[in-house]
Structures are given as structure tokens and as C-alpha cells.
From TrEMBL, chain A:
It comes from the Archaea. The keyword Nucleus does not apply. It comes from Methanolobus profundi. Belongs to the eukaryotic/archaeal PrmC-related family. Keywords: Methyltransferase, S-adenosyl-L-methionine, Transferase. Pfam families: MTS. One of its GO terms (molecular function) is nucleic acid binding. Residues 37-108 form the Methyltransferase small domain. This is Release factor glutamine methyltransferase. PROSITE patterns: N6_MTASE (PS00092). InterPro entries: DNA_methylase_N6_adenine_CS, Euk-Arch_PrmC-MTase, PrmC-related, SAM-dependent_MTases_sf, Small_mtfrase_dom. The keyword Secreted does not apply. GO terms for biological process: methylation. PANTHER family: METHYLTRANSFERASE N6AMT1 (PTHR45875).
Automatic annotation (TrEMBL), chain B:
InterPro entries: Trm112-like (IPR005651). This is Uncharacterized conserved protein YbaR, Trm112 family. Gene3D superfamilies: 2.20.25.10. It comes from Methanolobus profundi.
Length: 196, 55
């Protein structure tokens, strides 16, 4: 089994589960700047559990995560993440439980013939415009976020940063880009949204 | 477990524990009486996918 170490966290990886990459590191670093001891944290689509594991290794928080892939859920569980196998928020009770909700969605524009087989497709496939999962996320997230709670969303320039900011404003979130990193063919950004 | 809801109706669930350790449920079920549906907990992971989406 491959294990990586990053900022006090040891994270097991697994086949058919997204390996942490530049996006995961940027989101984990940015989350650590905002997450304080004592907070309630939710990560949607945790994958290997990397971002959650980095937070737990450095902050005294209560954290749960959701994940749709059975292989990724098992991997996250092996990394001591309390994971629920469900589609986004589906298996969670309505209620404003969380101080911070973190989501690294599948954000790459993906056509039918670009899909990859198996569960790994859930890690990449953002639909034709890259925003397939961002819209339902934004429609539901306010049901779970405390007043003045924060959402952290990682996307790429390929996803359409302006369109995502507009979607967030449409749902009543004051939003801005708080971190970015240029990679070979794209720019990765972390968008912070606060419910107004 | 107190944060979980039925993914179909969002209603409350009844927990049935088969195996647990000091701080968590390892296996069991969560039952929704409105939908008459069971959601399994296996290896410490609650599976809250609707039955038609479970593999």
C-alpha cells in the first residue's frame, strides 16, 4: 500500500481512488488557514480523505466526510476519517451543523468519450461544462451550514471561475478567490463563500 | 450517527447495532420506518445510497 506524508498527516492511497495532486494540496493548505480548533467540519466527496486527514492532523476539530465511491470511502476510513457513503448531502440530516464545508468537486469539462471507466470517473467528470456537481452543491449547502459559516470550493480555470462565482452569488454567498496556483494547462483556485 | 437521515425522505432513522467498539458502530443497520428501508453499516461505513444505487 502506498502511503504519503504531508503536514503531519499520513495518508493511505488506493487503486481506483484519486491520488492527491496539486488541487488537493492547495485546498488542504488553504483550509488550514481558516479552520480553527473546536469547529465542526464537513468535507463532501473526500476521496482518499487527504484534505480531511491534513485538517485532523493539525486542528482539534469534529469532522465528517461523505463519499459516493465504495473504494474511496474505504480508503478514507483507513485514514481515520468518519466517512458516510452517500451522494453529496443526501444521507445527512437537515440542520445548520457545520462551521466549514469543503468540496473539491469533479471540475473538469468532460465529454462522453472522455469518461474513464469505474468509480474513478466520479473524481474527474464535471459534465460538459465542468460545473455539473457545483449547481446541486450550491442549491443544498445552506441547509447544512451555520449562519456565517464558510464554504471552500476548489475549481480550475477550465471550470469557469466567473461562472462559479456568479452561481455562488445567485445563492446568496459573498464569494471571492482566496488562493490560486498555476499548473501546466490550467489555474487552480480556492473560492471562499460566506452566506450573507 | 445522530447526523444521519434517510436519503429519500430525510426522516429520522432507527439504529440497530450488530457490532461496535468503544466509540463507534462497526456494523448494523439504519432503518427508515416511513420508507420501510434499511441502510447497512459495514466496516464502520454507513451506506446511505438508495437501494437502487447500491452495488
Amino acid at each position: 500500500m502506498v502511503t504519503i506524508e504531508y503536514r503531519n498527516a499520513r495518508v493511505n492511497l488506493a487503486d481506483q481512488v484519486y491520488d492527491p495532486a496539486e488541487d488537493s494540496y492547495l485546498l488542504a493548505d488553504t483550509a488550514l488557514e481558516l479552520v480553527k480548533d473546536g469547529m465542526n467540519i464537513l468535507e463532501i466527496g473526500t476521496g482518499s480523505g487527504f484534505v480531511s486527514a491534513v485538517i485532523k492532523a493539525n486542528r482539534d476539530v469534529r469532522l465528517i466526510a461523505t463519499e459516493i465511491s465504495p473504494l474511496a470511502a474505504e480508503c478514507a476510513r483507513s485514514n481515520n476519517i468518519d466517512v458516510i457513503r452517500t451522494d453529496m448531502f443526501a444521507g445527512l440530516k437537515n440542520g445548520q451543523h457545520f462551521d466549514v464545508i469543503i468540496f473539491n468537486p469533479p471540475y473538469l469539462p468532460t465529454s462522453e468519450d472522455e469518461k474513464v471507466p469505474g468509480w474513478l470517473n466520479y473524481a474527474f467528470d464535471g459534465g460538459v461544462d465542468g460545473r455539473k456537481d457545483i449547481k446541486p452543491f450550491m442549491e443544498q449547502v445552506h441547509n447544512y451550514l451555520k449562519p456565517h459559516g464558510i464554504i471552500l470550493l476548489l475549481i480550475s480555470s477550465l471550470t469557469g471561475i466567473d461562472e462559479v462565482l456568479e452561481e455562488m452569488r445567485h445563492h446568496g454567498f459573498a464569494s471571492n478567490t482566496i488562493a490560486s496556483k498555476k499548473c501546466s494547462f490550467e489555474e487552480l483556485v480556492v473560492i471562499k463563500g460566506i452566506k450573507e | 450517527m445522530d447526523i444521519l437521515a434517510c436519503p429519500v425522505c430525510k426522516g429520522d432513522l432507527v439504529l440497530n447495532i450488530e457490532k461496535e467498539d468503544t466509540n463507534e458502530v462497526i456494523s448494523g443497520t439504519l432503518y427508515c420506518s416511513v420508507c420501510d428501508e434499511y441502510y447497512p453499516i459495514e466496516d464502520g461505513i454507513p451506506n446511505m445510497l438508495p437501494p437502487d444505487l447500491r452495488e
